[in-house]
UniProtKB/TrEMBL annotation:
Organism lineage: Bacteria, Pseudomonadati, Bacteroidota, Sphingobacteriia, Sphingobacteriales
InterPro entries: DDH_dom, DHH_sf, DHHA1_dom, Oligoribo/pAp-PDE_c-di-AMP_PDE
Residues annotated as domain DDH: 16-168
Gene3D superfamilies assigned: 3.10.310.30, inorganic pyrophosphatase (n-terminal core)
TM regions (residue ranges): none
Species for this entry: Pedobacter rhodius
Residue intervals of the DHHA1 domain: 250-327
Highest taxon above the source species: Bacteria
Protein's name in the database: DHH family phosphoesterase
Length: 336
């Protein structure tokens, strides 16, 4: 393993660095990645952000987004950068399977691997780790890395602050999750003091939908929402044909599950979507209900207690029925 002293010594001189994050990156993945990118660029390092896949258009406004390389679109260039890197920062994921084909390139690379993450049960592939399951976002841990480990709060300029605030805001559901502690609010306040325009960031992320996305949301709520009052559970299911009908783009299903969770009395909500290769599940819960346990136990996934995801090779109908069949097992926890 690499000590903090050794890592700081390595970062004291310009290095070739790659930053990567999980496939289909969300606000925290891109916020932490571009935030760290902005910091390291100031220090004279040669840095590239490589995402395994594309990501939502409503995140493309972020500072330095134009410098991001998408692996699926530039595989040869990405492989060369990974091979030549001295350090690879792995943000917002804890196992290399989360970065798809890019994972094996990272695993076999000679670079030192730095994991900055807050998910359970990390895989042992890294040389240095800033990991805390009680952090509300990877961006919070990037902030901690810069301010407390690198001892360099002055390295957080407006662009870095903007990215880190975006990551914390989105992964905490606008500071609504239990892990949005008073310390998280203090970090957010400091990021605002350092230049993050919180009102503008919220507008760019949440008030920036396409007409198709808004009509898709309306369709889901009117036609695809099922509520199981006996289990305090609500689900929304979507077929491939319905995605195509509304010209669904990457990120268009983001946040849809939260509408189901917002129903009075609901403790568990699920969005079950039929994709080209498999069926994806996104679960949200309130209180101490373990959404991540369901994803891990039944749907090859995991995540946090109140926000988790999974996938299945079964048909959409089979997955829906399987999910419904699980509810009686958790009835005592859902009805409180």
């Amino acid at each position: 393993m690499l000590t903090l002293t050794e890592l700081k010594s390595l970062l004291a001189t310009p290095q070739k660095i790659v930053i990567t994050t999980h496939h289909k990156p969300d606000g925290d993945a891109m916020g932490s990645s571009l935030g760290l990118y902005g910091y390291l660029i100031q220090k004279g390092h040669h840095v590239k952000v490589i995402t395994p896949t594309d990501y939502p258009v409503f995140l493309h406004w972020m500072p330095n987004n134009s410098d991001v390389i998408i692996f699926t679109e530039q595989q040869e260039k990405s492989a060369k950068l990974v091979d030549e890197a001295a350090i690879i920062f792995c943000l917002d994921f804890n196992t290399l399977s989360r970065i798809n084909e890019l994972g094996e390139l990272v695993r076999t690379a000679s670079a030192k691997k730095v994991m900055i993450d807050h998910h359970l049960e990390p895989e042992d592939f890294d040389d240095y780790r800033n990991w805390d399951i009680n952090a509300c976002a990877a961006a919070q841990l990037v902030y901690d890395f810069i301010v407390n480990q690198m001892e360099d709060e002055k390295g957080i300029n407006k662009d870095v602050a903007t990215c880190l605030y975006t990551g914390i805001m989105t992964d905490s559901a606008s500071f609504r999750f239990p892990l949005a502690t008073s310390n998280v609010y203090r970090i957010a306040a400091n990021l605002i003091d350092l230049g993050a325009e919180h009102w503008k960031i919220h507008q760019l992320v949440y008030d920036n939908a396409s007409e198709d996305r808004l009509r898709f949301l309306g369709y889901c709520l009117s036609n695809k929402l099922e509520v199981f009052h006996e289990f305090n559970t609500a689900i929304i299911t979507v077929t491939k044909e319905e995605l195509a009908k509304y010209h669904s783009a990457t990120g268009d299903t983001e946040g849809v599950v939260n509408y189901a969770l917002s129903i009075n009395g609901i403790r568990l909500a699920a969005l079950i979507v039929e994709r080209t290769d498999k069926v994806k599940l996104s679960l949200r819960s309130t209180g101490d209900f373990p959404a991540n346990e369901i994803c891990k136990k039944y749907f090859n996934g995991g995540g946090h207690r109140n926000a988790a995801g999974g996938a299945s090779e079964k048909t959409l109908t089979e997955v829906i029925e399987e999910f419904k069949s699980i509810l009686p097992e958790y009835k005592s926890q859902l009805i409180v």
